[in-house]
Amino acid sequence: MTRRPRDTDVPTVDDNNFRPTGERLDSFYRDLETLLLQQLNDDAKQHAVRLKLLELYFETRRTEDFLKQARTLWAKQGNATTREWQKTISMGMILAPTDPLFRQAQRERVEFVDAAEMPKAPPVRRFGDEARRMRLFEQLAADYQKVRSDPPFLELLDRELIAHARRPSSLMHCKRLSDEIKGAQIFLKREDLSPADTHLTIAVVGTALLARRLGRKTLVTGTTDGRRGVIMASIAARLGLEAVVYMDSDEMHRQSSNVFSLWLMGANLQAVDASTLRNADVREAALEYWGQHPDDALLVLGLDAAPPPYPMMAREFTAAIGRETRRQVMAVTRRPPDVLVSRGGNNADALGFFPPYLTTGCETRLVCVTPKPAASEPAPRRNTGAMDPSRVPMSEQEKRVARSIMEGLEYPAVTREHAWLRSTGRVEDVLYAEDSAKNAIQRLSQREGIIPALESAHALAWALHAAQGMKPEQSIVVMMAEDAQKDLWDIGRKMGVPF
User: Fold this and answer.
1) Closest CA relative to residue 239, chosen from 257, 215, 268
2) Packing angle, helices 151-164 and 198-213, rounded to 10
3) First and final C-alpha spacing in the chain
4) Residue closest to 342 by CA, chosen among 214, 457, 175, 197
5) Do 324 and 158 form a contact (C-beta atoms < 8 A)?
6) Cβ atoms of 50 and 73 closer than 8 Å
7) Cα(337)–Cα(189) distance, integer angstroms
């Protein structure tokens, strides 16, 4: 059985393969480094881009590359009070505390001569990047920092989630399965019984409670198909707040049920003509409203797609799942769980499940299980940057469908968050074979009457194997993340059932 990493463990780095040893992150880190270096080659004064490169080198413990970029940043910026330099100092004091760049007083000017100027290019514009808008995010970050560690606020969030997100989800003891294994006790966190938009709902409710705590009277959001708007309008009505919802005028005709729900709950629905907005993004209209009413309104987002503190807020609000798991396990076993197991991949499950167990001194193992590709499957093609001639631009209808799907995914880009979890040394990332998952599906279905979804079945299979080498008083909690109905026919085909 794999040794459990301790809090004092530091992931080592294989310089040749550019990855933390034992982790399958080389492709992700290499591609990200290439992208960032290309942007800096176009414009060396994109300090925010250089900061991201510094964060990548810090995460992978590439000290020499970190120091080289840190010296370049200082030479080009020449201002010790900037946000980028202050963050660089914080990382440098951990990664290279004896280097003169970080050992001396940080406000003293240090000159370097190896920083060559590079050709300029227009910087890439992203959501919320404008200076006049960044002040909104910076002020919110400062306000949230004062609230985030307040126990009464988290208790209020957990109580509100009972009404708005059907929390807590149940914790089920698989007694027959555990007795058969004769090892650790197997528990299932039944997220498969929760509504499809659970993570989105938790993030919206948390933001709404934060708005009321900060004295704001209005919640504003931009929504593609109306789902986020309906969730926001519901909590706004409960808290006595105003709700302003921006929606594409074309989508309003297609999503008439959500439009009617917004009207019933008293939301102020604003139609946006897509032709008047850059990138046809209704979030821009919502952000503009927030900028015009900074003391009265607060922007509500359910996605990890905005400047800080929104990614942190989403992660810490959804940690309600881990908090309720901790309470449930303690109530049943009178001791913390020995192992938490979640499916891996680009999903948000582990982000809500693991954070309460990341604290120093916690001995609970945290494991992400990803399906192991079959030997017969072709290796994924690497993107060389050249345009594939077989790719055809999406039609307007396909783009509308894609925008709707992205809103429902809740967290479409959590690869960075998973990389951070792994780099802490607390989260193990393992691959497990499909044959074991098939066996786990059969055993859980026949012993407990529950059919797991395919990806959750891989997590269960790993847990069943690990439980065999543990004691009966120990416990493993497996997150059942999705309703198996979406996978039912695929499960049947993989198990050889003739449909």
Assistant:
1) 215
2) 130
3) 39
4) 457
5) yes
6) yes
7) 12
Q: At what angle do helices 63-77 and 47-59 cross, to 10 degrees?
A: 160
Q: How far is CA 392 from CA 387, 389, 435, in A?
A: 10, 8, 37
The DSSP bridge pattern shows strands 185-190 and 268-272 to be: unpaired
Token pair 């847990």: residue: 463
Residue 136 CA from chain centroid, whole number: 22
In angstroms, rounded to a whole number, what is the distance separating the alpha carbons of residues 200 and 171?
Answer: 21
Tokens standing for 100? 């003169």
Return the closest-CA partner of residue 174 out of 166, 185, 160, 183. Answer: 185
Cis peptide before 168 (omega within 30 of 0): yes
Give 10-residue mean pLDDT values along the chain (499 residues). Answer: 40 36 54 81 81 81 86 72 71 73 46 33 52 85 90 90 88 96 95 82 93 97 87 94 91 87 94 60 88 95 74 87 94 95 80 83 88 55 35 51 45 55 76 82 91 88 94 95 69 65
**What pLDDT is attached to residue 379?**
40
Residue with tokens 């055809």: 392
Q: Per 3-state DSSP, what percentage of the chain is helix, strand, and coil (rounded to 5)? A: 50, 10, 35
* Helix and strand totals (H; E) in the chain: 21, 12
Q: What is the pLDDT of residue 425?
A: 73
Q: What is the pLDDT of residue 370?
A: 85
Sequence-distant (≥ 6) Cβ neighbours of residue 176 within 8 angstroms: 447, 448
The pLDDT of residue 226 is: 85
Provide the pLDDT for residue 311: 81
Q: Which tokens go with 421?
A: 């979890």
Half-sphere exposure of 468 (CA within 13 A, CB side): 8
How far CA 248 is from CA of 187, 225, 276, 405, in Å, comes to: 44, 8, 11, 15
Burial of 383 (0-12, 13-18, 19+ CB in 10 A): exposed
**Which residues does 387 contact at the CB level (< 8 Å), separation at least 6?**
none
Tell me the whole-structure pTM to 2 decimals: 0.66
The amino acid that residue 143 corresponds to is: D
